[in-house]
Design goal:
Layout lengths: L26 E10 L2 E11 L4 E5 L6 H9 L6 E6 L2 E2 L10 E5 L10 H11 L4 H14 L15 H13 L5 E5 L7 H18 L2 E6 L2 H7 L2 E6 L2 E6 L1 H6 L4 H6 L4 E5 L2 E5 L5 E4 L8 E13 L3 E8 L4 E7 L5 H5 L5 E7 L4 E2 L5 H15 L1
Parallel strand pairs: 3-8, 3-9, 6-7, 7-8
Antiparallel strand pairs: 1-2, 1-4, 4-5, 9-10, 11-12, 12-18, 13-17, 14-15, 14-17, 15-16
Helix pairs in contact: 2-3, 2-4, 3-4
Length: about 375
């Protein structure tokens, strides 16, 4: 019998298959640290993930998000710290003894098995009876909206359908936690956006804790109940999508989550999002309560539904603003280059940003050097 790839499940009788402690988080990490040579991939992370939560670990390449996921799964052993599932310490438990399943970007379906056989394979390994595993596998296919595809081979499916089969194969084992390592990365943009909504729907219906890893900010904002932004193995910010987007805790978060403008006025540094900025012709009065500055439009980028304006401010600094194409023709917008305008925003739409630490400044300079090479 071949060995199943891309999934792990708890063995009956193992420590982590015991009843979880009431009130304990689905996943608990305490001072988890992992290094590879001189590189500190995870630098002493403390984190709790609630039961039934759609939780996302977001960050650029090298931020430590995938390493953390693999530590939770048991594929990577932490150098120090502790990992718990449902209040049960699993730090020294192997992957097969943890009640989790993992879905990777490479779905790794068995090509010689049909879809239904792929989905029920984990139950077959657990020696679940044929009738029960067939019923559970069919129910999982209905959950991912592929009830009529059970007899097909993986090669006969689209990329999105194979992703759904991999998800069904993981869900059918009823894990305590489902780990997803950039599972949408191989899909085209339209299908990826559709699958974001599907994943959230499925998570709500099954009620399993989802831990999702991505570098895509839109995915994180669309699906998450909460998310953590990681940078160089450390937590930059933890919160709901609204909290992280509207009130970034650092310059890194402000720049990484969407587009943000960083300005300094009167010795204070603050950030403001492009969609909060109002553009007006020179001399046109701004709404009451708005802070107003003059500037010149340096560039205009047509993006279909919106135009993006790059504005050099008279008082110093550069702003990016966006406006919807409700009435303005694309040609008119592009002709705005060089025009002097007034920009305004409400003070309550800005968020104070602290000066970057010495470590952040060093990392920023290092990243700029890499980009310039």
């Amino acid at each position: 019998m071949p060995e199943a790839p891309a999934s792990t499940s708890a063995a009956p009788g193992s420590d982590s298959s015991r009843s979880s402690e009431a009130g304990a988080p689905a996943v608990g990490l305490r001072a988890v640290r992992k290094t590879y040579g001189s590189v500190e991939a995870v630098a002493g992370v403390d984190l709790d993930i609630a039961r039934g939560e759609f939780f996302t670990m977001l960050g650029p390449s090298g931020s430590g998000k995938t390493t953390l996921l693999r530590v939770i799964a048991g594929f990577v052993a932490a150098d120090s710290g502790a990992v718990s599932l449902g209040g049960v310490d699993v730090t020294r438990q192997p992957p097969y003894a943890r009640n989790v399943n993992t879905v990777f970007q490479d779905y790794a379906l068995f090509p010689h098995m049909n879809v239904l056989e792929n989905v029920e394979y984990g139950l077959r390994v657990k020696r679940v009876g044929r009738a029960e595993r067939r019923q559970r596998a069919q129910a999982a296919l209905e959950m991912v909206r592929l009830p009529e595809h059970g007899s097909r081979k993986p090669a006969e499916l689209s990329g999105g359908q194979r992703q759904r089969v991999a998800l069904a194969r993981a869900i059918v084992n009823e894990p305590e936690v489902l780990l997803l390592d950039e599972p949408l990365g191989a899909l085209d943009l339209k299908l990826r956006q559709e699958m974001q909504l599907e994943l959230k729907r499925i998570q709500r219906e099954v009620g399993i804790t989802f831990v999702f890893v991505t570098h895509d900010q839109e995915e994180a904002l669309t699906m998450s109940d909460r998310l953590v932004v990681l940078n160089a193995g450390q937590i930059e910010q933890l919160g709901t999508p609204i909290e992280v987007y509207e009130r970034p805790a650092s310059e890194f978060v402000a720049g990484f989550i969407g587009v943000s403008n960083l300005l300094e006025r009167g010795g204070k540094r603050f950030t403001i999002r492009p969609e909060k900025i109002r553009l007006a012709k020179e001399g046109e009065p701004a709404p009451a309560g708005h802070h107003v500055e003059g500037g010149r439009i340096h560039d205009v980028v047509y993006l279909g539904m919106v135009n993006r304006y790059v504005i050099e401010l008279d008082a110093g600094g550069t702003l990016i603003a966006v406006s919807q194409n409700r009435e303005t023709a694309a040609a008119d917008a592009l002709e705005a280059r060089g025009r002097h305008v007034a920009v305004s925003w409400r003070d309550d739409q800005t968020f104070a940003i602290a000066e970057p630490s010495a470590v952040e400044q060093t990392m920023k300079q290092s990243n700029e050097g890499v980009v310039g090479q």
